[in-house]
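G., the chain you wanted modeled:
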Amino acid sequence: MPDQSEKLVTLAAVIGAHGIAGEVRLKLFTDDLARYPALNAGERTLTLKSVRPGPNGAVARFAEVTDRNAAEALRGTQLAVPRASLPDLGDDEYYHADLIGEACLSTTGEALGKVVDVMDYGAGDLIEIERPDGRRFLVPVKAGVDDLGPPIRIHEEFVEA
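Predicted structure as tokens:
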């Protein structure tokens, strides 16, 4: 895959305020947000002071957010880090963000479209591919999901389905 070290990867999204002291409720896209003390929040950086499990995700406190109004103003904000700050991956591992936008080719080399989403429903990831005509279809990442066809293979420059 192309060098994506400068790409920002979203780890959480603010879904609202929690309490009156400036805490926020988060929808998490990572298992360990606490390992990232500085998060890109659009035009500014937020310093993570604490994070704990909460309703429908987590509750976090940022050094720069001290009251409910400031916390509520963050609703909808995506919190991201540079791709380069994520841990290295082992063989056959990938980050969902690395696949978005990648070309998808058939096993015979035919262009099928591009990856537009990666979904995790617990039994394994599904990759959503958009054809040039705008139609979309799903392909399982791992074997054993027979209803959807054979699993995909991830290469350096493209996804094969």
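Residues 2 and 157 are 7 Å apart (CA to CA).

Shout if anything looks off.
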